[in-house]
Amino acid sequence: MTGSLGRSTPVITALGGGHGLFATLRAARRLSTDVTAVVTVADDGGSSGRLRAELGVIPPGDLRMALAALSAEESDISIWTETMQHRFGGTGALAGHSVGNLILAGLTEVLGDTVAALDEMCRVLRIQGRVLPMSPIPLTIEADVGGLESDPRVNRCIRGQVAVATTPGKVRRVRLVPTDPPACAEALDAIERSDLVLLGPGSWFSSVIPHMLVPEQLQALIRTSARKALILNLAAEPGETAGFSAERHLHVLAQHAPELTVDYVVVDSGSVPEGREREHLCRAAMRLGAAVIYADVAETGTATHHAGKLAASLGSLLPTTHALSASDSTLGRESTSWQ
């Protein structure tokens, strides 16, 4: 089944990781009660990295963030969401661990399956959608990085998400290890049945592009009849994309997934000045088959997306049936509450 125009709520799938995906999910939940998060699984730092190394589990941190973004807002659930996000202090064995990471790791061992553990947490947090890993196994990111050798033409291979995100060199290309990882079957189903698929914002080389490097998932993105929207970052990130223009972000994505097309590129109107830069961005978007949508989607004075503003912008991209119904619903009114 592709699409769900016969349903009262649009089906939205958001792909990403970390704080970027958190922002997208906070916006998407204002438009639909059927939101699926598909999350990167290559983190190797902090609490997630320790649990991955010690227990062999999928790194839980980005999954935990997605659960927090979609959790119900009633007071009896909010305390659990806050506890999930709580990080232990001190200097002992638990120092730095998030409670939610430990719970997810424990549930995965008890139930024997990451997706089952996530579904159970969705039930506990009263989430109507789902949170899924992009692959059922932990993955590793490798990058070809220039500028680290005396000869600028020579690339060095940097391994690991944290190392890639913090490298002082210029990331040229990334890949996953293993190079042909399995996709999460439930994530493929979510992409196929969606009305709207969202990609980004987030760390471009470690949270966004990896979704294009899982072959089955890339094919699902190519095949789906859903509208696809790429949400650009509000600013380049130190390390990964320092010095990148908005246009450059699109070129890099196209280099890693030349067959992929998207319908829209959502850009904060304040982050790309009018004139030549917008002309270049428009040409880059056209190569992806996309129209550029400029909108005020930022928290004032920050490089963070505002959930209400982003929801208002994304709501206009939904198929007409859902766009009209959303505007008349409680969810739709929420999306304009920032005004």
TrEMBL record:
Main location: cytoplasm
Record's subcellular location: Cytoplasm
Alphabetic keyword roster: Cytoplasm
Keyword Cytoplasm in annotation: yes
InterPro entries on file: CofD, CofD-like_dom_sf, Gluconeogen_factor
Highest rank taxon of the organism: Bacteria
Cited Gene3D superfamilies: CofD-like domains
TM stretches of this protein: none
Summary of the function given for this chain in its UniProt record: Required for morphogenesis under gluconeogenic growth conditions.
Recorded family membership: Belongs to the gluconeogenesis factor family.
PANTHER family (alphabetical): GLUCONEOGENESIS FACTOR-RELATED, UNCHARACTERIZED PROTEIN YVCK-RELATED
Name of this chain's protein: Putative gluconeogenesis factor
Naturally occurring in which organism (per UniProt): Rhodococcus kronopolitis
Organismal lineage: Bacteria, Bacillati, Actinomycetota, Actinomycetes, Mycobacteriales
